[in-house]
Amino acid sequence: MSPRIHLPTGWVTFVFTDIEGSTRLAQLLGPDYRPVLSEHRRLLRRTIAATEGAELLTEGDSFFLAFADASAALTACLTAQRALASHDWPTPEAAPRVRMGLHTGWAEPRDGEYASPEVHRAARVSAAAHGGQVLCSASTSRHADPLPPGASLLDLGLHRLRGFDDRERLFQLVAPGLERQFPRPRTADAVAHNLPTQVTSFVGRHAERAELRRLVETRRLVTVLGAGGTGKTRLAVELAADLVDSHPDGVWFVDIATVTDPGLVAFAIAAVLGLRPEPGRPVVDTLVEHAAGRRMLIVLDTCDAQPAASAEVISRLLTGGTGVQVLATSRELFGVPGEVVWRIPPLSVDPPVDGAESDAVALLLDRTAAARGGRAPDPAESADLRRVVQRLDGLPLAIELAAARLRVLSVGQLAERLDDVLGTLDAGRDAPEPLPTERAWMGNQQDTVDLVAAAVGQSPPSPATRAVYRSATERHQTMQATVTWSYRTLGPRAARLLRWLSVFVGPVDLSTVEWLLGDDPLDPLSVLVDKSMVLAEPQAAGSSYRMLDPIRAYAARRLAEAGEEQAARNRHVAWSTHTLERAHLGADGQPVTLSLYALDPLAGEVRAALRWCATGGNARAGLRLAGGLDQWWRERGLAREGRLWLSRLYGRQAETGERIPEAELAAAYHMHSLHAGADGEFFEELRFSQRAEAAARQAGDVGLLARVLAGRAAPLVDMGQLAEAERVCREVIDWAYRQDVVGDALLAVYALAELLWRRGALQEAAELLGAARPVEAARPLDRGRRSVDMLLGMVALARGDLVAAHEHLVVALRSRMAHGFHGRACDTLHALAVRCAAGGDLVTAARLFGAAQATRTSMRSTPGIYGDYWAAQQAQLRRRMGDATFDDAYGEGSNLSLEEAAELALDVEHPDLAADSGRFPTSAGSDPHARPASI
User: Fold this and answer.
1) What is the reported pTM?
2) What's 862-916 look like in SS3?
3) Does residue 404 register a pLDDT over 50?
């Protein structure tokens, strides 16, 4: 440096500049690089001379300058950047991108140079800048007064410069003619991450978080897979925040949903990492080279927006170095080597064993309190809260939206409205205004979009492009938008399968899907599973497939819009009917003993099919479906529901004028009569019994008429007309024997045996039941109930024969529980309670009484002909035990489940067979209402 140059002293502003990517530019231009470098030097020296800056050092592509005035230094940098940007370079790729950094500090030159830490701080400020950017320290910003005309300083926050322990607030020079969008400064921040700040608490997911963390800590690529709204992003961000300290080179979040072109995925990641494109080099190469020697975690969110491009970039990152890990969220897997796919489950809806609330309920409680101004839901709303989360399948987004609805609805009202999931959750949520924190986050993401566009030489995004971005950022504002995001990526076959699967309310197996479509569904089904729109759940017998309820609701809307609803739902009705029929048959196609457990998993599908039959389908098919669950309705305490479905189907028939054969109407009316009796509606019971008789006679079916007439005694008994009921039973049984349809008249046999027991004709009852045993055993629909054994047990109790009573009742209870006849099992538990009381086991008797009554109450079923008998025996037991002891044991029993109560009853010791046993009296009683001999 010439000694004639005057070096400023006191408050000196130091400026460092260099060309970003100069090595790459030199390799690209070869011999043409020297003229570019020379022209760059000429332009800088011309601007420096105009502002009286002192050139201290020029080396290669770098300048070191000193200014006595901070404003002049900023003016020199602004002028230089404008000159560089407007210069006519040989090619666009040859334009040098110069970064500049300024810092002002107290300094005095010695021997023609500055030996001061302020020089090093200025160099570090320059090193933090990007090509085309001018950065300055807080000291320079204070001394630069006035600023160049039209210029301003943008506060970039506090940063830790390499080699310095304190933090420096950096500012970017903003002015016309200068670029504005740049990656974050290249500084050595202690906390290296850009994870979004969450405005709500993170609820639950303790097990999932721990499991996912173990995977991320041991694998280099983990893909969190799940449908929209399952909480993939939130869980990934929460986990990534825990891992910042274990990744010295940072944890970086990139939202691929903001990328509108596959070719910009690598640019978006590079921009977040603070990288700029290098001349003549693919940005993915720059990205891989930067990441190769670093230990960092890259969180790529919503990769299903650009799945192929994301997979390609991830593969390059993983093969380019060993220190990079990728945690991705997507609705479909990448299929790249080394990928570990972790499917995120919905929030748990079942409470843990410690008695706490489930994760789904806990989330709804938290968000509901927020929606109601901090007021937590009333404890009385707990049952409805559980109904809501069950109905929403534990889907976090749906729960969040549901909580918002609770500003105007009670939990009970919301639960009742969830038949229309999308309409209820999305109500009033068209293009909502984001919260300030959300707006700030969206603005940061938009800056990334603008930066990527600038990096590839494009103009800022057009309004149309920004609209695409907004749709991406708002894709979780409504359930409709969430599912549409995935639906639009489906091909025709996969989209059709999704629509048609919406008619099923529960899981289905592969053969069912094949039956539904009528062809091989494997390809479209695989697409739906891969895109997380259908959940595949492996089981021992083969995988089952189901949709989360909000997705099903969306697909059902699409089904109607496509004009396919009639065909799809009729197909579902046919499947339901066929499946019900198969439940009554064995592998060889022959009838087997009816087990109501086989019908339990079909009930949801049958209800959906019945709903269609009653509103838009075929009433005759609906009556056939309802008949397939004939005994199930009553044995599950759902007789009232069964009556309601039948009434709706009668209405549908009247509406359409559909012709239904008399035999089928007779069967429906007979079933309706039995439901009404179980529900305590005795006049309705008699009315439909009479209708059934008229229709059966019209049909001319002898067996059907026998079944209808055999049920006539029930309403007569219920109305207290016992003599008339007995007369009807005897007439029906005699007639059935003459017509050789005695099996169809079993109801009359049972009713007559009960009437005989009631009036003490025990021998006749026993003989009648003995003759009925082989008839019952020959009928698959009846033999699982073991009504003959139940009634023989009652006869034995009346006689005081505890051995016979025990053996008959245990056989009846074991069969009824084994085949799912829960209503009838309650009767047997009552009878075994009487047997235990007669045998001296008073505590067990009280427990069984409590369990039987609690189950009967929950099923809302009437006690029938035995009601007075149970009450009398229970009263006698209370007198023997005393109120307090009886109530304690009764309360214990009422807390037992039906299965636990049955286990307790079946564990009762068999009576002693010795002739002198006190539990086996020698004299037989004759009055069923008398106190048993041992009491």
Assistant:
1) 0.68
2) CCHHHHHHHHHHHHHHHHHHCHHHHHHHHHHHHCCCHHHHHHHHHCCCCCCCCCC
3) yes
